[in-house]
Design a protein that fits this description.
Blueprint (H helix, E strand, L loop, with lengths): L13 H8 L9 H31 L17 H8 L6 H14 L2 H7 L2 H15 L3 H9 L3 H34 L6 H14 L7 E5 L2 E6 L7 H16 L42 H8 L5 H8 L8 H23 L10 H18 L4 H4 L6
Antiparallel strand pairs: 1-2
Length: 380
């Protein structure tokens, strides 16, 4: 007789393989973990709402503006808002652009393929001609550097796609917080299920991008391109921002001779799941901007947990980063489960083995991550 009992995994992170096979999350379930994850995702959801609106505004209303001085104002320029910005009392939209440029640089997926296609270049040429007509400076620049404007449009496409992606994620996280307040969410497993259900619900949402130039609408990413939320925004985002990322300035040398940065992009391990929270707050560390933004919107129950720590609020940004990493392991769990080749509860030995191989491949990427560190018992 052939045994249908699956043998334990021999992977170095076998514990987490078995957790996922049992329907659990990468992050251990505890009351404090639930409070941290839900609380930080509420704050993140509020920040993403602002990031999303600004990215979409830039894509739609700052199209091929070479000097967009007021791009962070969302079309609402006033003296009061200028004073607020000069006093640094604002959302740090620079972080949203940092994430966008990281995705553009890493590329990958059908969006990247489409933006290198003849169809995209043809559409880009049409809208470029309309935008630069009678603008001798820009049209002259384009003749000298023919790849300049198409590359700007590629970047604007990433502005729009990331804005659309974060729109869904913001609503998802705010809804999670509302459900927690209604006591519908009480465990890490329920957090993961909420995220997974929301990702599945939005999976086939089309990613489209069109701009209006002189009264005429030009499609840059038409619906016929077939780009959708899950496979062309969510999956590349997880790969690029959670795993690969970019090295923080000042923490490693960018000098090629120093060989501190991998030669190949697919070897990068600078994403959110690997980053050391301790440098957060230092100059040149992009996530510092995100942590600074989130600190303004922390729910009271999470802020109270931070105040009870040994350093109180002196290391608030570091604590926020640690909670944020926990939450991203939950989001990653949802993504991994949503992309499983076969149902978790399958009884077919071959399907179970395929699931095992799939999970172990993911675990290979988690070995140098902070997975085991975030699972240290509650510290607050």
């Amino acid at each position: 007789m052939v045994s249908t009992i699956q043998q334990p995994s021999n992977h170095p992170l076998a514990e987490y393989v078995h957790r996922l096979e049992a329907g659990e999350a990468l992050l251990a379930n505890s009351q404090v973990n639930v409070l941290e994850v839900v609380g930080i995702l509420k704050s993140y959801g509020i920040v993403l709402d602002a990031y999303s609106k600004n990215l979409i505004y830039i894509a739609d209303h700052q199209f091929l503006e070479l000097f967009p001085f007021f791009k962070y104002f969302n079309g609402e320029v006033s003296l009061g808002k200028l004073l607020q910005f000069w006093n640094h009392d604002r959302i740090n939209y620079e972080y949203a652009e940092y994430v966008m440029k990281t995705m553009l640089w890493h590329g990958g997926g059908d969006l990247d393929t489409y933006l290198d296609s003849p169809e995209f270049l043809e559409r880009a040429q049409r809208v470029m001609q309309a935008k630069t007509k009678n603008n001798w400076l820009v049209s002259g620049l384009q003749r000298v550097f023919p790849d300049f404007l198409p590359e700007q449009i590629r970047q604007l496409a990433y502005y729009k796609v990331l804005g659309l992606f974060w729109r869904v994620m913001s609503d998802m996280f705010i809804d999670l917080s509302d459900r927690f307040d209604r006591k519908e969410i009480q465990s890490i497993a329920e957090v993961v299920q909420h995220v997974q259900d929301a990702l599945v619900a939005a999976a086939n949402q089309p990613l489209v991008y069109a701009v209006e130039v002189k009264g005429q609408v030009y499609d840059i990413i038409p619906e016929s391109a077939g780009l959708t939320f899950l496979m062309d925004a969510a999956v590349p985002y997880v790969d690029t921002i959670f795993f690969r990322g970019t090295p923080f300035l000042g923490t490693v040398s960018y000098n090629a001779q120093a060989q501190q940065i991998p030669v190949f992009q697919d070897q990068f391990i600078y994403g959110a799941l690997y980053a050391d929270p301790l440098p957060i707050g230092g100059a040149g560390i992009p996530p510092t901007l995100l942590m600074q933004d989130m600190r303004h919107f922390l729910p009271d129950y999470l802020h109270d947990i931070y105040r009870q720590g040994l350093r109180g609020e002196d290391d608030l940004r570091v604590k926020i980063c640690e909670s944020f990493q926990k939450s991203m392991f939950c989001v990653t769990t949802a993504a991994i489960r949503g992309l499983m080749p076969h149902p978790l509860d399958t009884e077919d030995p071959k399907q179970r083995q395929a699931n095992r191989a799939y999970l172990e491949k993911w675990m290979d990427r988690f070995i140098p991550s902070r997975l085991e560190i975030v699972n240290v018992p509650d510290r607050y």
